[in-house]
Structure formats: structure tokens, C-alpha cells
Design goal:
disordered N terminus; mainly alpha
């Protein structure tokens, strides 16, 4: 405990005038932003959206070569900026974990979700230089990984964090509801196979063919590529479709309840003093 206090005091007194501390105040993720930090956030956000636009345009065919060169140059510059940002965040990780040693704090930060996303967003750009490959499929997979830069937006909005917290808090209920849905789909797929395999041997070749039908039916997608033709199969299909409507709505209602539970929490916090924690009296 004493070591932690000494460490905190060291950072607060000596490092506040250092370049590391100034850099940390610019790139930090909390709400304590100054003008420079706000400008930095706007620049990074603009680069993220610019990269998303480039990824979208990269899917178009017959794009002029000059435009492709411009896109490549922009991607190279933005990747270098993202790389410097990643290095800066690792370098200033000691202020995120002040109770840890320098190296331990940096290693711990590297394995956080946000740091992993940052690394994966820049890694595909450098991979062809480190390991030259001529496999087109592998190159396409590498280029596809660039879409992970979209998750960098999680630093500047708490929307994804809220969704993650809800999924974590409601994980038990969600697992139970999904388990019931999976049992229903497996049961219906096997039953449909035994009912329809004689009438449609080429369509319902095995239970996995029935599982594809069950997924399309329970989720109310209904692609229409596989469907029952016998009378008993149609009755089973209608029953599964009606039952699936209710079961699929259960996970949605659980997630909705999680959002609703988070709304009054902010209102309740406003009734307490942010400094002493005492409940504030309402003005009449």
C-alpha cells in the first residue's frame, strides 16, 4: 500500500512536467480533454472514417489507377499515424496503471481489448513487407482485416462499452435462451429429416440439411431454398415457425431490459453528491 502511494506521488509530482505526461493528456480516453486533446481526437476520428470510405471504395471494380494510388498513399499515411498513436499509448501506459512497474504496466495494456484492436488495425499493412506472399486469397484476408479500424471508434463513444456491459450482465439469461433455441432447432431438424427424407432425398440428405431449414424457419428468414412438401412436414414447419417467433424474441427482450436498467442508474447518481457520496435532498 505504501509503495502504491509513493508511486502515485512520484507520477503526480515529477512526471506532470514530462513529455510523457503531456502526451498522455493528449491521447487519454477519459473526459479530461483540453483543446489539443480535442483536436487530436477529431483528427483520429476523421482518419478512421476516411479509412472506412477507402475500404468501401476498394470493393468497387474498374476504379481508375490514379485514384487507387491516392487511396494507397492515404492509407500509408494514416497507418503510420495509427502506429505512432499505438506506440504512444503503450509508452504512456504507466499512467493508466500507476501501481504497476513500467514494463508490467505496458505489457498489461498491450493485452487490453482496445490495444489489441489498435494493433490489429495496423498489422495488416506491415504484414506483406515482413512476409511477402503471392497468394491472392491471403492478401484479400489481410486487406479485410482493415475493417477492424472501425472498432477504434470505441475509444470515442461508450456505445460499444454499454453493449458489452449488458451482454456481460445478462450473459446467464442469454445463454439459457440461446440454449433453448438451439435445442428447438436441433430437434426440429432431425424430425424434419425423418419426415421429408423419403419425399425429398436430394434436399434433405441428412440432419444438417434439416438444420439449415430450421435456422431459416426459426429466425423467420425463410429463404425458400429448402421447405417441406408433405402434409406432416408442413404441419411441423408451421408449428416451428410460430414457436420460433416467441423464442427468438426472448434474447431481444433480455437485451432491451438491460438497456432499460442502465437508464435510471444515471438519474439516481445525480441525486448523490459526487464528492462525499451523500444523498441530495430534492428541492420542492
Amino acid at each position: 500500500m505504501l509503495d502504491d502511494i509513493i508511486t502515485m506521488n512520484r507520477y503526480n509530482e515529477n512526471d506532470k512536467k514530462s513529455i510523457r505526461w503531456s502526451l498522455f493528456n493528449i491521447i487519454r480516453d477519459d473526459d479530461k480533454n483540453n483543446t489539443i486533446s480535442t483536436i487530436f481526437d477529431c483528427i483520429i476520428l476523421s482518419l478512421i472514417f476516411l479509412n472506412i470510405v477507402i475500404i468501401i471504395f476498394d470493393t468497387f471494380r474498374n476504379v481508375p489507377g490514379e485514384i487507387l494510388k491516392i487511396f494507397s498513399s492515404i492509407e500509408a499515411v494514416t497507418t503510420i499515424i495509427f502506429t505512432l498513436e499505438y506506440i504512444a499509448r503503450v509508452w504512456t501506459a504507466i499512467y493508466i496503471y500507476p501501481q504497476k512497474r513500467y514494463i508490467v504496466a505496458q505489457i498489461r495494456y498491450v493485452f487490453t481489448f482496445k490495444a489489441i484492436i489498435d494493433l490489429l488495425s495496423i498489422f495488416p499493412f506491415y504484414l506483406p513487407f515482413l512476409f511477402p506472399v503471392k497468394n491472392l486469397l491471403f492478401l484479400r484476408i489481410i486487406r479485410l482485416l482493415r475493417i477492424l479500424r472501425l472498432f477504434k471508434l470505441n475509444r470515442y463513444t461508450n456505445a460499444l462499452s454499454k453493449v458489452g456491459n449488458i451482454l456481460k450482465n445478462k450473459s446467464y439469461q442469454l445463454i439459457c435462451s440461446f440454449s433453448v433455441v438451439m435445442i428447438l432447432m436441433l430437434l426440429s431438424s432431425v424430425l424434419m429429416y425423418y419426415i421429408e427424407s423419403d419425399d425429398q432425398p436430394d434436399v434433405f440428405e441428412n440432419a444438417f440439411s434439416g438444420l439449415w431449414w430450421a435456422i431459416a424457419t426459426v429466425t423467420t428468414v425463410g429463404y425458400g431454398d429448402i421447405y417441406p412438401v408433405s402434409g406432416l412436414g408442413k404441419i411441423l414447419g408451421a408449428f416451428i415457425a410460430i414457436l420460433g417467433i416467441g423464442l427468438i424474441a426472448v434474447p431481444t427482450s433480455i437485451i432491451t431490459a438491460g438497456f432499460i436498467e442502465q437508464i435510471p442508474n444515471k438519474k439516481e447518481k445525480k441525486n448523490y453528491c459526487p464528492y462525499c457520496g451523500r444523498k441530495l435532498e430534492k428541492e420542492e
